[in-house]
Amino acid sequence: MLANTFIDNAKVMSKGQITIPKDIREILGISCGDRVTFVVENGSVRLINSAVYAMQMLQSQMSGEAENTGLTSERAIMDLVKEVRGESED
């Protein structure tokens, strides 16, 4: 078994509901009122904190965009920030 693997189980109730075990909720950083995302791949399901999943999707979609717009150095990024803020060159 992998070192970072954690296994727990829950009983499915009459309306398909389950209680996510406390240890799993803590690992995923979810609490009452939070949303979760189910990802089904090859007959397995991953349960992910929806906020974390959304951030991962955004990061994936934005990957390479800085290079596409010519922001290839820290200096170029700082120049853009100054321009957006309306700051003058020193």
> What percentage of residues falls in helices of 4 or more residues?
40-55%
**Basic shape:** elongated
Summarize the biggest pleated sheet.
2 strands, antiparallel
Can you count the beta strands? Answer: 2
Q: What is the average of the pLDDT values? A: 83
**How are the strands of the largest sheet arranged?**
1-2
The string of secondary-structure elements, in order, is: HEEHHH
Query: pLDDT under 50 segments (min length 5)?
Result: none
Describe, in plain words, how this protein is organized in 3D:
This protein is an alpha+beta fold and 90 residues long. It has 4 helices and 2 strands; from the N terminus they run αββααα. The protein has a two-stranded antiparallel sheet. A hairpin with a 2-residue loop joins strand 1 and strand 2. The longest helix is centred in the middle third of the chain and has 13 residues, at 50-62. The chain is elongated. The relative contact order is 0.08.
Tell me the layout of helices and strands.
Elements (H helix, E strand, L loop, with lengths): L21 H7 L7 E6 L2 E6 H13 L2 H4 L5 H12 L5
Antiparallel strand pairs: 1-2
Attribute tags:
single chain; two-stranded antiparallel ribbon; 4 helices; 40% helix
